[in-house]
Amino acid sequence: MTSQSLQKVDHSALKTNQLIIISLNILAFILNLPILAAFVALMMGIGSALKIPGFGFVYKNLLKPRGWMKPDVLDDNPEPHRFAQFLGFIFMTAGSLSLFLGATILGWGLVWLVVALAALNAFGGFCVGCAVYYWLGRFHLSGFTKQPPAGTFPGMKPKVGVRA
Amino acid sequence: MSSETLLRFFLAIGIIVLGAAVYWFFNQHLLVRAKNNVFTLFKTLPNKPVIVYFTTPDCVPCKTIQRPALDKIKTLLGEKLQVIEIDASERPDLAQRWGVMSVPTTFLLDANGEARYVNNGVARVEKLMEQVQTL
């Protein structure tokens, strides 16, 4: 782990994003609404394109101003989280397409996979997509240049006290 | 609500329960680790309940929620309870031994030094009190 510049990343915005993704996907499954799963995919895609959490606006405009969720700003790399969301977008798009094409088991399986990974991140503090990002970085792939914050297991939420 | 929706609802509940069970087993694993490493903190048994609190200097929820909750519980229980604070950034060895993956994390140990509860993330004062009372 070499010296690198970390940025301030608000993990509450990421958590809000994950919780909304989990909720909407479970609702989509219960109500059998592939269109809702497609909407989640779309929001994750927009978020990936804009380099923000897809449902981060809920935190920014509603939860944070009203004090319903407090900021949890940590020194971290934003890139792995963006990559994780992009991976989620790919899975959700594949899941939605499968559902529209009639491959329901595959489709809902992919949707539940996203739910499980988002839950692991939201409740366990482990970001699988981030771990994949750091793992790819070990192979010196272009674009995967960041390393985990010092003292942090790749993919785990930083324990802070982290120095750039 | 159609029968299909009901079926899907219960299926979703089942999947969530399964996930919660996996999480429960993970917590049990953490408690076993804590039990095996309790003597990394004590030379002799504490003879009173202990809260082992893993934190770091820059952890915002630790400062805004967890620290005030622990202060309050210490005020309420006084000498009947011991709180041990560990800076995970200064003692990564201890954090690793105890299986701490995020902060704040609190372990509640009974008077025999046996880890009985683990809270991954913020544990509010009501929850901590409830847990301490069963120790």
Notes on the structure:
The complex is a heterodimer of chains A (164) and B (135). Chain A is mainly alpha-helical and 164 residues long. Helices cover 60% and strands 5% of the residues of chain A. Chain B has helices at residues 3-36, 60-77, 92-97, 125-133; strands at 50-55, 82-87, 105-109, 115-120. Chain B is an alpha+beta fold and 135 residues long. Chain B is 50% helix and 17% strand. The relative contact order of chain B is 0.18. Chain A binds chain B through residues 26, 29-32, 70-75, 112, 116, 119, 123-126, 151, 153, 156-157, 159-162, and chain B through 4-5, 8-9, 11-12, 15-16, 19, 23, 26, 56-61, 64-65, 87-90, 92, 95, 100-103, 120-121.
Strand count, sense and barrel status of the largest sheet of chain B are:
4 strands, mixed
H/E series of chain A? EHHHEHHH
Radius of gyration of chain A: 16 Å
What form of chain B results from the Cα inertia axes? Answer: elongated
Beginning-to-end CA distance, first to last residue of chain B: 45 Å
- Number of E-state strands of chain A: 2
Assembly classification: heterodimer
Rg of chain B over CA atoms, rounded to whole Å, is 17 Å
Count of DSSP H/I helices of chain A: 6
SSE diagram, text form:
The complex is a heterodimer of chains A (164) and B (135).
Chain A: E1 7-10, H1 11-30, H2 34-50, H3 56-63, E2 73-76, H4 78-100, H5 104-124, H6 128-137
Chain B: H1 3-36, E1 50-55, H2 60-77, E2 82-87, H3 92-97, E3 105-109, E4 115-120, H4 125-133
Parallel strand pairs in B: 1-2
Antiparallel strand pairs in B: 1-3, 3-4
